Predict the 3D structure of the following.
Amino acid sequence: MTRIKICGLTREEDIEEVNVLMPDYIGFVFWPHSKRALTDDQAKALKNKLNPAITAVGVFVDDDISHIVKLLET
């Protein structure tokens, strides 16, 4: 089965659109050198607007495991 992920979301408008399109996954980028990087607070605010049927994933590059765990817990 093919699954669809839309990655690099940064705006509320992006979330509104994926809530209509209903991909399997969406991605938030946490690598600070990316032009699509989000802070933890920005990602949390966007995630709160995401349809709960869509799974959010994080994109990390050489990040500290404690930061990833913190994001999972919040």
Notes: DSSP finds three helices and three strands in the chain. Residues 5-73 form one domain. Residues 12-21 form the longest helix (10 residues). The mean pLDDT is 96.
